[in-house]
Write a structure and sequence with these properties.
Elements: H1 6-19, H2 23-35, H3 37-41, E1 43-49, E2 52-57, H4 60-68, H5 70-80, E3 87-91, H6 131-147, H7 161-167, H8 171-177
Parallel strand pairs: 2-3
Antiparallel strand pairs: 1-2
Helix pairs in contact: 2-5
């Protein structure tokens, strides 16, 4: 087993974060530019799953019409994304869902592990390139955030309130039980 320096580890994590930047968020920004105003008003990108974009349409007629245009749309979209999509699927499914902007890096407020910013300060990403300073900033932020949270009765670690309400212990202790 070889040991890597902290600089190597942080560098590889930074590279992975850039590679894993969610293409769906990028797509939401340039969707109206690619499809045009009329189509954008009658469509809503829902998700990218297995490199296939799922788009909700306002009617079956829109879904059918856009299915015929999907190859040209796919070329325009793939010009903008770092990792190309394989296909686009249009359907009326999901059109009537509430319109929310999806952000994969945030936790939904009704999830048991959600920690409200009023309960604990949010984590800010370090702005320094020095790994020791970045780690110190991260550790201080984690410490300040966890001081305001209740403790798990089994392991004593800081635990979001929702996890205690749901499982009476933290998610790690709950997973150990399963």
């Amino acid at each position: 087993m070889s040991f890597k320096s902290l600089n190597d580890i942080l560098g590889s994590l930074e590279t992975q974060a850039k590679l894993l930047e969610h293409p769906f968020q990028q797509l939401l920004h340039f969707w109206p530019e690619i499809v045009g105003v009329a189509i954008a008003k009658n469509t809503r990108p829902l998700a990218i799953q297995y490199d296939v974009l799922r788009v909700a349409t306002s009617s079956a007629a829109w879904a059918q019409n856009l299915t015929f245009q999907r190859q040209s749309l796919l070329r325009k979209i793939n010009d903008q994304l770092p990792k190309p999509l394989v296909d686009i699927r249009f359907s009326t499914v999901g059109w009537h869902l509430p319109k929310t902007e999806i952000n994969p890096t945030t936790t939904e407020p009704n999830h048991p592990s959600y920690v409200d910013d009023e309960v604990a300060p949010s984590i800010t990403l370090p702005t320094t390139k020095d790994p020791q300073v970045a780690f110190q900033q991260w550790a201080e932020t984690r410490r300040a955030r966890s001081q305001l949270l209740p403790l798990c009765p089994e392991c004593g670690c800081a635990t979001p309130i929702g996890e205690l309400q749901r499982w009476q212990v933290c998610s790690i202790c709950a997973a150990k039980r399963w």
